[in-house]
Amino acid sequence: MAWQSKLIGRLVNELTKMPGVGRKTAQRLTYFLLKAPEGYVENLARLLNEVKQHVSPCRECGNLTEGEQCGVCADDTRNRRLICVVEEPADLTLVERTGEFNGVYHVLMGVISPLEGIGPDQLRMAELVNRVQTHQAVEVIVATDPDVEGDTTAYYIAKLLSPLGVKVTRIARGLPVGGDLDFADEVTLAQAIAGRQEIGK
Amino acid sequence: MFASQIHLKNFRNYRETTVTAPPGLILVVGPNGAGKTNLLEAVHFLALGRSFRTNRDRDLVRLGEDALSVRATVQSACGEQLFALDYGAAGKVAAVNDETIPRLIDYVGTLAVVAFGPDDLALAKGEPAVRRRFLDVWLGQESREYLYTLQRYYAVLRSRNALLARAAPRAEMEPYDHELVAAGATLTFFRAGAASGLAAAAAAAYGELAPEDEDFVVEYDPAVPCDGDEEEIGRAFERKLEEGRGAEERRRQTLVGPHRDDLRLAVKGCDARRFASEGQQRTAALSLRVAQFRLLKKTRGDPPLLLLDDVASELDAGRQRRLADVVAGAEQIFFTATTPPAGIEPDAKIRISEGQIEASG
Ligand SMILES: Nc1ncnc2c1ncn2[C@@H]1O[C@H](COP(=O)(O)OP(=O)(O)O)[C@@H](O)[C@H]1O
Ligand SMILES: [Mg+2]
Ligand SMILES: [Zn+2]
Prior knowledge:
Number of strands of chain A: 7
Number of domains of chain B: 2
Mean pLDDT of chain B: 93
Number of helices of chain A: 8
Helix content of chain A: 40-55%
Largest sheet of chain B: 6 strands, antiparallel
Low-confidence stretches of chain A: none
CATH architecture of the largest domain in chain B: Up-down Bundle
Shape of chain A: elongated
Number of strands of chain B: 15
Structural class of chain A: alpha/beta
Bound molecules: adenosine-5'-diphosphate, magnesium ion, zinc ion
CATH architecture of the largest domain in chain A: 3-Layer(aba) Sandwich
Mean pLDDT of chain A: 90
CATH class of the largest domain in chain A: Alpha Beta
Order of helices and strands of chain B: EEEHEEEEEHHHHEHHEEHHEHEEE
Number of helices of chain B: 10
Oligomer: heterodimer
């Protein structure tokens, strides 16, 4: 394809490696970047570098943060014996926004998904066991999405933690069946947390 | 309810076509390969998000195109509603009254439909999978809870099979056993509860269609014993999984569960699949469809759209006439034939040739 710029081809290729970006979208993003006003691309490149350099998982909960510890973990008023397990940092933000939760979080960075080849070993399970032990947690609330992966992951966690004697609960099913946490508004999510139930009981 | 207008775009051999139709019996005529079945298939696809003759959605898109769209204006007690289902690179996207429904499963079956076709013989003659599909298409329109559970069961099953395929450790299997049992017990319980109604309705329909040998028995044949409530079924399922663990590990797939269910059909006390004549098998299959129609009409309080594809050619004149009586409770019937059958007075006629509507009215 001699009529296409090699550089554009390379950029498009790089962009399609991103989740949810197909060829068409990659091309559109490329044209957008080319036409963007003065300074935009330079700023973006710098920002990407800075994010990559300064943002990393919180050493305690796995939430993404600048520095060693995230805002929640750094807050002394939070109850460390109450741990809310979420799939991703974005879910943490959703629960935080309800304003009803005063414990700390544990970000798994995904869910168990046999079809995508993701097993418990690829998630932050060992860290969870560790935290439950060191903080002598009394309750772990599993707030993964209410779909098959989220529910099986919750069940796995309940079994994993059962020798430790901690109560493991699951947020209630007021949420849309098989839906995403993002489908729920703050009130619904707050209700789901309030109505949580012990797993396997 | 009835569809007063149907619009197809790039569906099978249709480029872009609008069909208007009154309630009642609509005869769809045209030569072989004209697009008669395709028109009915489009209505089925619009209602249930799937074809009645293929699982490959891609085949529904007109060759050389990459997206299709089916729309219908439907008149019912709720007034006029516009249903739309598009399929293309973004998958299937449904809308009711121009409002997109974010998840397809919340849309499927909003419009109810029952299709009779030449392939229905397989209901009596074919593999269990054909009868399971019958159960699912029927019950999925009876209850959205059923549809959700069905989707969940198969999602769990696929994951569990993936774990078995790579011999995953027990601790990883356990959550999937648990979910499989939960969804499987709900499905089994639901099917068991619905089966007696089906048996009665199908036996009655058989008697009306073939008064001469009326003795048609339909029985649910579950993979997991279905006595008792959901919890008891769940425990039975757990036991079956436990017993079969060795075999599952060897064969690396889930060997027990409602994905192995069947319906047992018997005509005059004999297994219809093995011993019934082809005429009896046809009547048995037809009776199941009639039962599906009547039961859906009852639970939904509104008769589903009826799609009758090439059924007349398979039946003798007596059965044709009786079938017409049996489905008289429909508000709208699309009925295809290569030549207009004698003795049937349609309310409207749609003439099709090579993916073009030549005349309707
Ligand atoms: N995806 C498709 N694109 C274009 N034509 C198609 C497609 N699928 C089927 N057809 C055409 O549709 C015709 C069959 O239409 P059908 O409705 O089954 O006929 P009939 O009127 O006999 O019921 C065939 O000629 C076939 O080539
Ligand atoms: Mg046909
Ligand atoms: Zn933290």
